[in-house]
Amino acid sequence: MFWTVVDSPIDPLLLVGDETGLRELWMAPHDPPPGAERDDDVLAAAAAQLGEYFAGERLAFDLPLVPTGTPFQQRVWSALREIPYGRTTTYGELATGLGQPTASRAVGLANGRNPIAVIVPCHRVIGADGSLTGFGGGLPRKRWLLEHERAVLGATRGEPVATGLW
Known about the structure:
Layout: E1 2-6, E2 13-18, E3 21-27, E4 37-38, H1 44-54, H2 71-80, E5 89-90, H3 91-97, H4 104-112, E6 125-126, H5 139-157
Parallel strand pairs: 1-4, 5-6
Antiparallel strand pairs: 1-2, 2-3
Helix pairs in contact: 3-4
């Protein structure tokens, strides 16, 4: 297992992975797993793509991901990756999309256990009433990520971008 740290506008990000792919992405403060070694080269592609994302040059990630979780969590995390850049959905909509419309709380729990923040965009899930809800990195970071994506989309379309929607 290897780790590196990537600077970002939302604080340093800890990346953990191996030769098969990225396993974890955590926001500060977070320590590397015991026994893991620092290796910037193994995680260079993930670091580069994150840099492009934060620079507004990348709208989708193309990385091998190997998060550890239950089959249900894996399904939720896969569904999160289908939420378009700059858009949001609700826990209930995700549950319905998974064919389990009464499982919004279970979807919320799986969302909260997402080990690869930003790249598996759990920040794009909001409350049913449109409000910002729980985010392991804190609501200010969630707001920043959502506003960043909307600003990038607006710039690519030449449109003014509304901010402060939450």
